[in-house]
């Protein structure tokens, strides 16, 4: 009987399994879906392959690259070229140093505010709104990132703390802002200089070799964990016994997986917040789509926060002569009807002339309960309480939603690998 059990066959769970095998341990993975990959997974409809949200790799870690390269074989490399839609205008990303398409009056407001930014000690900054105003001035902060924050994070910028920002938001110099207002010929300042993607098989092909060599039991949704008896019960009534238990299950799920949770842990769980999201997939009978791997949308009447093209990531993701797009909408499950979702996403692309209705072969709406962890003021204390409790009862949490952090795919893989002591 296998005594080491890993919960979840996403990229972090497979990373944990890889580390186990490096130590001579043969683990068993329990996965609730019918395939591996988790949020880094994909699905195929009528010859079109779509990922579950946008995924591209810019991993630099030697061990991660070794796994990705050996799994994927043929890899396509892209130079990032993201864009934005703001007031129906296409603006190069990041917008703060690519203001050229805006009218002169608006550019003047942004630059004047940028120059008038108060000199504030960073130690005095307590929330993301303050950080944005200090970095970019009031006008830009209010019309760009503060608007986008509501679409992407489902909260106001003042409700977020700032440790998560890191290199994710570019902070240009005065000279860059002014130069970018005068010309569209500006250098790429995105934090990753190249992006990689498997030629075939979707993003999860990067770690398919890990799944191929691991004992994974699919359609095994965990419904209860008895830490005293060291048992995991699944939805079909099967009970698995373990000596060691590693889990990528999202921290809030333990409120119903475990019994007799201490009150302070229950309270901490209730304070953990995240976004949910829909991905709206569009199959097109044409290759006439915007030439950008992905783009952000600031306009509030368009539900999607971000759009990307699976067929640009790899031409093998669509049949010959066709293309595809996916749009991300962050909201609570059921907040919009499917008709509202499609009208506010696909319908808006048609309205803007970006695609033609007659070119749409089909659309697909998928939902992800866990999308992004929300970095509010409660996150650090609350997740530490929950994680420490899980460890105290013999559960080792890891991965994006086990660590409850902002982990990219390479970081999620390493999270699983590092969980195995």
Automatic annotation (TrEMBL):
Source organism, top-level taxon: Bacteria
CC terms in the record's Gene Ontology section: cytosol
PROSITE patterns hit by this protein: PROKAR_LIPOPROTEIN
MF annotations from Gene Ontology: flavin adenine dinucleotide binding; oxidoreductase activity; UDP-galactopyranose mutase activity
Pfam family, one: Amino_oxidase
Domain Amine oxidase: 11-368
InterPro entries on file: Amino_oxidase, FAD/NAD-bd_sf
Protein name: FAD-dependent oxidoreductase
Taxonomic path: Bacteria, Pseudomonadati, Bacteroidota, Bacteroidia, Bacteroidales
């Amino acid at each position: 009987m296998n005594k080491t059990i890993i919960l979840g066959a996403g990229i972090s769970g497979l990373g944990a399994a890889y580390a186990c095998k490096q130590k001579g341990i043969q683990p068993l993975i329990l996965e609730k879906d019918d395939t591996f990959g988790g949020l880094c997974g994909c699905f195929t409809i009528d010859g079109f392959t779509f990922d579950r949200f946008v995924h591209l790799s810019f991993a630099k870690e030697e061990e991660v690259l070794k796994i990705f390269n050996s799994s994927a074989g043929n890899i396509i490399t892209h130079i990032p070229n993201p864009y934005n839609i703001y007031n129906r205008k296409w603006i190069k990303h990041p917008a703060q140093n690519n203001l050229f398409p805006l009218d002169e009056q608006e550019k003047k407001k942004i630059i004047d505010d940028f120059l008038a930014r108060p000199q504030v000690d960073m130690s005095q900054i307590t929330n993301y709104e303050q950080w944005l105003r200090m970095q970019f001035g009031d006008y830009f902060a209010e019309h760009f990132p503060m608007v986008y924050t509501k679409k992407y994070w489902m909260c106001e910028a003042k409700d977020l703390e700032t440790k998560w920002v890191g290199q994710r938001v570019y902070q240009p110099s005065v000279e860059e802002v002014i130069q970018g207002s005068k010309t569209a010929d500006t250098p790429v300042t995105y934090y990753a200089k190249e992006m990689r993607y498997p030629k075939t098989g979707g993003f999860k092909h990067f770690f398919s070799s890990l799944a191929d060599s691991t004992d994974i039991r699919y359609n095994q949704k965990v419904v209860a964990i008895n830490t005293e008896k060291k048992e995991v019960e699944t939805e079909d009534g099967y009970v698995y016994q373990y000596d060691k238990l590693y889990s990528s299950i999202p921290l809030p799920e333990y409120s119903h997986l475990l019994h007799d949770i201490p009150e302070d842990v229950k309270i901490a769980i209730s304070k953990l917040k995240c976004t949910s999201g829909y991905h709206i997939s569009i199959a097109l009978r044409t290759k006439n789509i915007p030439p950008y791997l992905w783009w952000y949308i600031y306009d509030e009447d368009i539900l999607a926060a971000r759009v990307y093209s699976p067929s640009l990531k790899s031409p093998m993701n669509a049949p010959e002569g066709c293309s595809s797009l996916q749009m991300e909408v962050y909201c609570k499950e059921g907040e919009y009807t499917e008709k509202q979702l499609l009208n506010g996403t696909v319908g808006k692309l048609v309205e803007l002339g970006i695609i033609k209705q007659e070119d749409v072969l089909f659309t697909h709406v998928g939902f992800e309960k866990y999308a992004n962890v929300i970095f509010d003021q409660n996150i650090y204390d609350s997740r530490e309480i929950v994680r420490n409790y899980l460890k105290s009862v013999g559960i080792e949490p890891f991965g994006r939603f086990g660590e409850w952090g902002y982990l990219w795919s390479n970081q999620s893989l390493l999270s699983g690998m590092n969980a195995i002591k």
